[in-house]
Amino acid sequence: MPDNDMQFVDSHCHLNLLDLDAWNGDFERMMAATADAGVSHVLCIGTELETFDQVRQLAEDWSWVHATVGVHPLYGDAREPSQQELVQLADHPRVVAIGETGLDYHYAAEDADWQRERFRVHVRAARETGLPLVIHTRKAREDTLRIIEEEGEGEVTGVLHCYTENRTMAERALELGFYISVSGIATFQNASKVRKVVEKLPLDRLLIETDAPWLAPVPHRGQPNEPRFVPHVAETVAQLHEVPVAEVAQVTRDNFFRLFNQAAPATPGVAEAH
After folding, report:
1. Closest to 256 measured CA to CA, from 27, 11, 8
2. Alpha carbon of 237 to those of 4, 53, 119, 160, 208: distances in Å?
3. Rounded to an integer, what distance in angstroms lies between the CA atom of residue 98 and that of residue 28?
């Protein structure tokens, strides 16, 4: 368990999709346990317009939850967003980023053309709003960076979440002003390549996340993931950088509020709805 003085930020999770069987469906108990684990803030990620109301409502109801708006590159059946619609939906005090967006050629290479066009729409919306991007990228390194450069024109920043690509891409993303987010994958025994990348990246450009309900970190691997498990990711980052966990908690928290600068810090550990 983390020290009571440590405060962790889960920079990427899907609260509206969590498996609450362990809590007998009691969302408030799960959130109380999250706060007890030292998690002070959570970013709830939008993946489709059809469920965006759920994501926004959670951010409205909980002072330490913020939201994003976007359509995931693997959600081929989801309603396509226009730049105007994304901009309009992002005009809300609890919405702090555009995404989840990006490119996935691992699972859907056959859909590359429309993925690229959808991604461009999101980058344009981020540029118009001034909000950062939350990017999913898998086996699409060159296209991801090229579209950021072409559409962002140096005015867009964001995070490459749940990072599993190589060091070269990460360093190019850092040059563009992006952050890299480390997920529970870094704790997996077979993820040595991910760990080697993480240990070479500057701590002041890293975020930590769960991507819950997926990718639960060790020692919870194989279970439904929850935001309260994010300290385990911080512990792995601390080991790789040979620094105290408290330093990782503080630096990644500072990074979160620097990147998502429309997110207002709430009272740490508040586990009650507004």
Report:
1. 11
2. 19, 34, 30, 16, 9
3. 27
CB-facing half-sphere around the CA of 176: CA atoms within 13 A? 28
Name the pTM for this structure: 0.95
Q: Is the pLDDT score of 3 beyond 60?
A: no
Residue type at 233 in one-letter notation: V
pLDDT band at 252 (very low <50, low <70, confident <90, very high): very high
What single string gives the DSSP state of each residue in 65-99? EEEEE---TT-TTSPPPPHHHHHHHH-STTEEEEE
In this structure, the chain runs to a length of 274
State the Cα–Cα distance between residues 129 and 46, nearest whole angstrom.
Answer: 17
Q: What is the Cα–Cα distance from 237 to 208, expressed in whole angstroms? A: 9
Give the model's confidence band at 264: pLDDT under 50 very low, under 70 low, under 90 confident, else very high: confident
Whole-angstrom distance, CA of residue 244 vs CA of residue 200: 17
Please, are residues 63 and 93 in contact by the beta-carbon 8 Å criterion? no
| Residue 161, both tokens | 């979440």
Q: Where are the domains of the chain?
A: 11-176+192-214+223-259
Which superfamily does CATH assign the domain made up of 11-176+192-214+223-259 to? Metal-dependent hydrolases (3.20.20.140)
Burial status of residue 274 (CB atoms within 10 A of its CB: 0-12, 13-18, 19 or more):
exposed
Cβ atoms of 29 and 23 closer than 8 Å? yes
Residue 61 burial by Cβ neighbours in a 10 Å radius (0-12, 13-18, 19+): middle
pLDDT at residue 271 in the model = 44
Q: Where does residue 117 rank: exposed (0-12), middle (13-18), buried (19+ CB within 10 A)?
A: exposed
Phi, psi (5° rounding) for residue 18?
Answer: -65, 145
